[in-house]
Amino acid sequence: MPIQYVPVQVGVVGKPNVGKTTFFAAATLIDAKIAPYPFTTIEPNRGIGYVRIECVCREFGVRDNPRNSICIDGWRFIPIELIDVAGLVPGAWEGRGLGNRFLDELRRAPVLIHVVDAAGATDEEGRPTKPGTRDPCEDIRFLEKEVDMWIFQNLKREWDRVVRLVEMAGKDILDVLYERFSGYGVSRGVIECVLNELDLARKKPSRWSDNDLLNFVHEVRVRAKPIVIAANKADIPEAEDNIKRMVREFPHLKIVPTSAVAELALRKAAKSGLIKYLPGDPDFEVIDEKRLTSQQAKALEYIRERILKKWGSTGVQQVINEAIFGALGMVAVFPVEDENKLCDKDGNVLPDVLLVPKGTTARELAYRIHTELGENFICAIDVRTKQRLGADTPLENRAVVKIVARR
User: Fold this and answer.
1) Tens of pLDDT along 175-185?
2) What phi and psi, each to the nearest 5 degrees, are found at residue 132?
3) Which of the ends of the chain has fewer CB neighbours closer than 10 A, N or C?
4) What global pTM score does this model have?
């Protein structure tokens, strides 16, 4: 049966002029290669990017024909939805620069990519300055504060109602807060965990201070809407020391050196047939040097020497992968209907790959594919080992499985 695929949403945030729009453009350029994929009503500030994993086709010695993703040279690119939020400035949570409107776009995104000017070449408002002028660590603090204060403000506005529901109507505070946070994609388990950790579960909400509420919001946000840092403009000399300092000062964050402008240039060159390059590759191959102008050749050599050799990649693909597999802890699973031919009922080989939370069980995967499949679940089969998997067996990354169900 056809699998309904809902792409994971990733918010792309940052102040103006840090390269956020370039990052978004570079990350979504590959969309042209998968035109048949059914995304037809994407708003202008939304686009399809991809996470990259090693496909299982070579391992099984088959030629696949994916439906919900694309396989290039043994690498599977799985669609995710990027939400490009307009540049945020200090005070965005108060509505400055239409900040509230833009922050509302992030409600359903479970993870954020914060594009930071690692070269320190833009001031706090995003105005261009001399490289090294601005401390990018301040931008990381600013963004975390803006997101926290935006959620805090929204919750504070409803706090009197929370108090009445808990203290007068006798509602469970966990239920009331879960309802308030459901619009942000926060799970009940996260709210319960934070309530207990901060010892707020037994405290009457009328006695919560603003500091209690803000700490609660911060801890929920860290768990439910983690942030990955794209340390952009990494090719500018001043960026190197800044990136080292960012890593030291924010050990809880994943910081990836990035050059969005280099990634965009490489993807455009690849699309034009000038080079062979896949997003995330550590190098590229010039197809025909005679077709390159001297300016193009010089630009490509700059990218190779100043970015690829120094940092190992442009960082754009790595940031996206880190957001999905690192911050969200997701795994990729390949469901098939025929465990011998690795195909669906129409003969498509390895047709789908699903991104699911780590720990997803065989039965939960069945429900994700189709409700009836979950309700009639008997077992799953690990295609590699041919072993039966019980309903509660967690699935590993790159697992290839067949769901067996009652007819």
Assistant:
1) 999 999 888 88
2) 95, -5
3) C
4) 0.90
